[in-house]
Amino acid sequence: MTVETRLITESDYPDWLRALSTGFLRPPVFTDEEIAERRASMDLDRVRGAFDEGRCVATYRSFPQQLSTVGGARLAASAVSNVTVSPTHRRRGLLSRMMNAELADAKERGERVSTLIAAEYPIYGRYGYGPATTTTEWSVDVPRAGLDPRRSGPDDGGRVDLVDGTDVRKLGPELHQRLAAAQHGVVDRDELWWRVNTGAVRMPAFPWTEPFYAAYRAASGTVEGLLTYVADDKWGDGKQPLNTATVRDMIALTPAAERALWHFVCSIDWITTVRSGHRAPDDLLAHLLPDPRAARVVTQADFLWLRILDVPAVLEARTYPTSATLVLDVRDSSSLAAGLFRLDATPSGTTCTPSSQSPDLTLDVRDLATLYLGDEPATRLAARGHLDEHRPGAAALADTLFRTGRRPWCPDVF
Ligand SMILES: CC(=O)SCCNC(=O)CCNC(=O)[C@H](O)C(C)(C)COP(=O)(O)OP(=O)(O)OC[C@H]1O[C@@H](n2cnc3c(N)ncnc32)[C@H](O)[C@@H]1OP(=O)(O)O
């Protein structure tokens, strides 16, 4: 049986969407309106499929993305999404064919990294991707948190106001730009993201529940935070409220905003549980509660995966807290990014160039991805057997160079 993998054409698109839903175990039916809406957001030059006797049996898409690195610079990324192979055609190498073609194209286009959110951990390491951020979700037992039940609002001169989706579409993009400049690991959100996530565009495959939105304004009058949450209207047999508030999105540009919005959602009458949604592992939430043990971690897992395509460009793009030199031997089974590189880092600027010196550290390109945004120290990678140290102290030096004060965080699934 010959199965062809290729970029799709306009006429393939409805069948491609059907295959995508089939692979994600969602009902494979679409209205004409949904087909048109989804088609408008896709650049067919970056949409691949596999075809068997004319029927689409695998899907794969990439789109241009900006990834915030340490220090606030944005890296041109190729974001990979919509990866499926129909259950009739699994484990015949279709994903590998589409992935290898797309990574070569991304490198050719000059994209520095490829990014994705992995459905399952074992899939993408073989293609040079490594987990680069961690996601944490907390469940807060509100009655145990110890917040003052008489609390009526922020005590810092700021205020929290309920707003609507139109306000969020106006306020959100600028707040998100500021978040992206301050927080490494953040990926950009386009206009469609804001429309879909405020209900302005609705897709039958993703039933919409209108959420509540709240904005925090500092005493200066500047909006510094936005919160989106839903509640489930649950009551106990004894007529006690047992509502869970689930946070869909929270942007907090300052610790004051973070504090005000967490305290707000944990103080809403009838809410006895708060689910935090995808947060950074070092989110302040637990420690903003008088009793931090009221916040229990319910999810802790890898989140954003990175595939470095251009080692010098990527290493030069981020900032480093101190001056040091390291020679890295980067291994890459596909040869897209392999090489020996000398990193001369300083707080005011960094160069990374091919080198012929003997290496201080050897690591696979996927482990460089895990090191890159500062989520995992080099010494821990060495302890796990993922990094070889050739010069004593080199791994500890890499810790100093790559670690960051706050952990990287990617708020979005894509
Ligand atoms: C970014 C995203 O979109 S994440 C979403 C990914 N999609 C899904 O999880 C949907 C359900 N799963 C699928 O559609 C498919 O199983 C896919 C896309 C994950 C894999 O597609 P396949 O065509 O079966 O993969 P392919 O045959 O190219 O496999 C390549 C290698 O990866 C391995 N592999 C593939 N999928 C998995 C998996 N889920 N777990 C472990 N190993 C896997 C294969 O065994 C093979 O290993 P080998 O090189 O040692 O022989």
TrEMBL record:
Gene3D superfamilies: 3.40.630.30, SCP2 sterol-binding domain. The keyword Chloroplast does not apply. Belongs to the acetyltransferase Eis family. The active site is at Y124 (proton donor), F414 (proton acceptor). This is GNAT family N-acetyltransferase. Homohexamer; trimer of dimers. NCBIfam families: PRK01346.1-4. It holds the Pfam family Acetyltransf_9. Keywords: Acyltransferase, Transferase. Residues 3-154 form the N-acetyltransferase domain. Acetyl-CoA binds at V83, T84, V85, R91, R92, G93, L94, L95, S96. CDD domains: NAT_SF. It comes from Streptomyces xantholiticus.
